[in-house]
Amino acid sequence: MRRIRIGLLIAGMTIGLLSGCAKQQVTTEAVQEETNVENSITEEASEENTESQPEEAVVTPPSEEIAIIYTNDVHCSISDNIGYSGLAAYKKELEAAGKQVLLVDAGDSIQGGVIGALSSGEYPMEIMNDIGYDVATIGNHEFDYGMEQFMKLKDEAKFPYVCCNFMDLTTNQRVFDAYQMFTFGDTEVAFVGITTPKTITSSTPKYFQNEAGEFVYGFCQDESGQKLYDTVQSAIDDARNAGADYVIGLAHLGVEATTSPWMSTEVIANTTGMDALIDGHSHTVMPEENVKNQDGKPVILTQTGTKLANIGTLTIDTTGKLSTSLTDNSYETKDADTDAYIAGITEQFDEQLSKVIGTSEVELVVNDPETDVRIVRTAETNLGDFCADAYLAVTGADIAMSNGGGIRAAVPAGEITYGDIINVHPFGNAICVIEATGQQILDALELGVMDMPEESGSFQQVAGITFEIHPDIPSSVKLDENEMFVSVDGEYRVQHVKVGEEELDLKKTYTLAGNNYSLMNGGGGLSMFQGNKVVQDSILVDAEALIQYIQEDLGGVIGQDYAEPYGQERIVAVD
């Protein structure tokens, strides 16, 4: 049997614990020693800081094997791939085999599909409760329905959320507990929650601000990454001091270069005392990697990918050895009770989702049809053109932009249902029109290509405008500590911008259509538009704009104008 203990603030701990992001006053690091050639770990007391670290910190291996099942970036894929009923069956299978089982999630579970969009995350949360999750950390997309709604969902969850670096800046205190401890007989296992500071811009910055536009929430971000490293280290030390035999990072950080200096590999390399880190955010399929920590000791790093194509298992055996593995979607066992529970939820909106709203003569793509690699965040696609055209049609603006990060699923050839369109735009953003100068528009386009050839959710698909990208020019975009746009300090990668047949006039004011996430709320770091005059506010939800465009402007048929998957040469990359 296991019992659960929440990692609360303890009087007498370091100042780093109380302030979260404050640099530690005392560091209490446990020295990890390998007890075999792989990942079996024991703990010895540090000879320094003996007042806060036990003199003999000895790991107690479990008397029965512990199996930690983990998921990340499910994004509302309740029945795709393994699905939640497969996950429930797998959990029951391990329990029946006599293992001590935990089920944990590394973020981005409640958003990304129809079931989340139509319920503002309520239905996915109900399913997670039904399956029996034990602990989760926060993904950036947990906030996509707004701060108030996420806090409501958090209260409805039958499991705790943990995050050591999500801070209330008005009090300089953590919003959630830094870690949660689980006890298996004499063995203590702690999960330290960590969320990427990229959350501020990859969700909606407005959700982290007060009415005056001041940031009142933060994630311990700075340009060097040191604030985050110190905060994670403080949480690890506190968990060790509370008796943890094993400390597992439960993180939504990712390994994409664009998230540096907050990549999971960087957090591991700049901390000590963590045995393994279960990651999310970058949708990477990573059964098990070993990354050296600050002391040169190996730490397991793992991630399942996305949409339950895999589920992970971190095993702590009776010798103390840690290992991880992934189970892929060849696992076909389903849990009948979970299937029935999900069916009871989905039937509430299936009729609406299956309603046919039009047809398409071509497939509108997110991924490259030749390589199946996602390109909507790095290059023009026919779906990007279609979305931007829809914004232009329903608003009558001069220019329209649709951020690549908000275009989530392809549209198949043939009949198109309401559900297909919701899957394209699952966030429920509203279409608006603002006034913007040519300079601001140029800066927005430049921000979107700063990371090329890496992806950026701020890459803009466009209508009413064309431009060239010169990726050989080094990016000189400057961002602030919150990853918000500040300036371009050198030559622009975006060049030869035309509005219709005319060159973009940097001093002229244009009407610009897009979603409120980007144009009004600073999503993706687009601070250049903050405070601009709003011409049309919340005209339609973005998915409804696409439906209106199909039915009223295209006569119900997406035709051969969109046949080329790589678009209509509105965006051209120049070698």
Would you mind describing this structure in some detail?
The strands form 8 sheets. Strands 1-9-10-12-13-15-14 form a 7-stranded mixed beta sheet. 23% of the residues lie in helices and 26% in strands. It is built from 15 helices and 31 strands. α2 (83-96) runs antiparallel to α9, α11 (382-395) crosses α15 and α12 (418-424) packs across α15 (542-553). Mean pLDDT is 89; it is low at 1-20 and 22-56. With 575 residues, it is α/β, with parallel strands linked by helices.
Summarize it.
The chain has 15 helices and 31 strands. It is α/β, with parallel strands linked by helices.
Mean pLDDT: 89
Rg over C-alpha atoms, rounded to the nearest angstrom: 24 Å
- Gross morphology is globular
For the biggest sheet, the summary is: 7 strands, mixed
Given helix and strand content, the structural type is alpha/beta
Cα end-to-end separation: 62 Å
Labels describing this entry:
alpha/beta, 5-stranded mixed sheet, 15 helices, 7-stranded mixed sheet, single chain, disordered N terminus, 575 residues
Secondary-structure map:
Elements: E1 2-7, H1 15-19, E2 31-34, E3 41-44, E4 66-71, H2 83-96, E5 100-105, H3 114-117, H4 122-131, E6 135-136, H5 147-156, E7 167-168, E8 173-174, E9 179-184, E10 187-195, H6 199-202, E11 217-218, H7 226-241, E12 246-252, H8 264-269, E13 276-278, E14 285-292, E15 298-304, E16 310-316, E17 322-328, H9 336-346, H10 350-353, E18 356-360, H11 382-395, E19 399-403, E20 414-417, H12 418-424, E21 431-437, H13 438-449, E22 460-463, E23 465-469, E24 477-479, E25 485-488, E26 494-499, E27 502-503, E28 509-515, H14 516-519, E29 534-536, H15 542-553, E30 557-558, E31 571-573
Parallel strand pairs: 4-5, 5-6, 10-12, 12-13, 13-15, 18-30, 19-28, 23-31
Antiparallel strand pairs: 1-9, 2-3, 4-16, 7-8, 7-11, 9-10, 14-15, 16-17, 18-20, 19-22, 21-28, 21-29, 23-26, 24-25, 26-27
